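Write out the 3D structure for:
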Amino acid sequence: MDRKMWLSLLAQSSSEDVKTLWDKAGITCDSEIIRAAEIGAVMVQGRQGGTGAPFHLGEMSVTRCSIKIAEGYIGHGYHQGRSKETAETIAKLDALLQTDKFELILKSVLKPLEKLVQEKQYSLAAKAAATKVDFFTLVRGED
C-alpha cells in the first residue's frame, strides 16, 4: 500500500473508526504541530452519469493538520468533517507509516479500516440497487 492509498483510506474513514482503531493499537508518538488542525470548506464537483460535463455539487467541510514526529517524518491529515482530533490522528498515522512501524499500523489500523469502508460501500450500493427500476417494452401484436 502506497502513501496515496493510505491517505485516501484514512480520509474516507469515519472519525469513530479511526479513533477506535488508534486507541486499540496502543500506538504512541511524540509529535510537534507544524500546522494546527483547521476547519475549512472545499467545493465538490460531480459529473452527470460519471462521464458528462462537471458541475458544482456544493461545499463540504474538511479538517487538515500537519505534524512532525520525533523521528523527523512529517505527516499530513485531511478528513471529511469538523473533527480536529481525527485530523491530528491521521497526520500522526501518516508520519508513522513512513517509519519502521508500517507493518504494525497496516495490520492493526489500515486493514480493519479498509474492511469497514468496503462494507459501508457495499451497504450503500445494496440500498441503491433496491430502488433500481428496470423498464422494458412489450412488442405489440400489430400486423
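The mean pLDDT is 91.
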